[in-house]
């Protein structure tokens, strides 16, 4: 399936070249249809592996995603729209995440880090706004190109998060006053070093949680497999006992029939002669 997804990605890339599309456009369309058929068969096999139980199949988020991506290709409105259809085909490439455990862990980690990153982004925005206002007050007249208003000042402070051109800004600020060095140093320490370290900490924590979830999922899968094997072994033992019991019953029936036949062949018992005495 990884190979099929890779071929799908190559075909999507070839379709972006006008000369290639003009030369082998119909062949690429046939290849897309074949790949779609392979995805449908693979999805059907996975559905059958759950015993044909939709609730079990759709309990997995990856199964839901794969089903939506594959089923969207058959929606009438999507098939007639080349742009939407191309986007749907592009989503098939994302299915490779499900097939690679490490990539799946990274994806789960990114998803779990969103709440923490969102909170960190709000704090960063507030800090950029506060320093942007201070920068406008200090450098508004001295450097209007970068601090002419609060909006431009926030853009400048946002760029400084990457420490780009920091020496240039410090040099320009020292032309106004040496005290401006405190402004830039405090911003770098708080907004750049502290914020980025917090961001790294959130991502690392999410990675650990994602690894724990993946390990737990693997353990549950092994337990389910062991339970299935135990149930199968128990069923085999019960079947063997039932077969032995059936054989014992059949043996008893044969013995009973033989006993009845033996009794039927025996001669009937002769009655004993009775003695009568007469008186003279």
Low-confidence stretches: 276-280
Distance between the termini: 120 Å
Helix vs. strand class: mainly alpha
Mean pLDDT: 81
Largest sheet: none
N-to-C SSE series? HHHHHHHHHHHH
In the CATH scheme, what's the topology name of the largest domain? Helix Hairpins
Shape: elongated
DSSP strand (E) fraction? under 5%
* Number of separate strands: 0
Rg, alpha carbons: 40 Å
CATH architecture of the largest domain: Orthogonal Bundle
Helix content: over 70%
Which CATH class of the largest domain is shown?
Mainly Alpha
How many structural domains can be distinguished in the coordinates?
Answer: 2
Number of helices: 12
Walk me through what this model shows.
With 280 residues, this protein is mostly helical. It folds into 2 domains: 2-99, Four Helix Bundle (Hemerythrin (Met), subunit A) (Up-down Bundle); 103-226, Helix Hairpins (Orthogonal Bundle), CATH 1.10.287. It is built from 12 helices and no strands. It has helices at residues 2-14, 18-49, 54-57, 61-72, 76-79, 82-94, 96-99, 101-139, 144-147, 150-160, 166-176, 180-265. Helix 1 runs antiparallel to helix 6, helix 2 (18-49) packs across helix 4 and helix 8 (101-139) packs across helix 10 (150-160). The longest helix is centred in the last third of the chain and has 86 residues, at 180-265. The protein is elongated and about 145 Å long.
């Amino acid at each position: 399936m990884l190979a099929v997804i890779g071929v799908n990605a190559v075909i999507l890339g070839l379709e972006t070249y006008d000369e290639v599309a003009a030369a082998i456009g119909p062949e690429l369309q046939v290849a897309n249809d074949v790949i779609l058929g392979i995805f449908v068969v693979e999805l059907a096999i996975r559905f059958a592996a759950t015993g044909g139980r939709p609730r079990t199949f759709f309990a997995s988020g990856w199964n839901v995603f794969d089903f939506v991506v594959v089923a969207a290709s058959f929606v009438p409105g999507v098939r007639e729209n080349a742009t939407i259809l191309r986007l749907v085909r592009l989503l098939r490439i994302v299915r490779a995440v499900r097939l690679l455990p490490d990539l799946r862990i990274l994806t789960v980690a990114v998803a779990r880090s969103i709440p923490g990153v969102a909170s960190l982004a709000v704090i960063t925005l507030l800090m950029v706004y506060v320093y942007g206002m201070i920068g406008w007050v200090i450098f508004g007249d001295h450097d209007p190109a970068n601090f002419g208003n609060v909006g431009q000042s926030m853009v400048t402070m946002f760029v400084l998060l990457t420490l780009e051109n920091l020496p240039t800004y410090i040099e320009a600020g020292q032309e106004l006053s040496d005290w401006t060095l405190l402004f830039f140093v405090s911003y770098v320490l708080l907004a750049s070093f502290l914020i980025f370290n917090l961001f790294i900490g959130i991502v690392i924590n999410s990675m650990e949680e994602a690894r724990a979830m993946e390990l737990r999922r693997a353990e549950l899968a092994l337990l389910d497999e062991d339970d299935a094997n135990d149930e199968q072994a128990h069923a085999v033992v019960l079947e063997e006992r039932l077969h032995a019991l059936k054989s014992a019953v059949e043996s008893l029936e044969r013995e009973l029939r033989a006993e009845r036949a033996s009794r039927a062949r025996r001669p009937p018992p002769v009655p004993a002669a009775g003695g009568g005495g007469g008186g003279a």
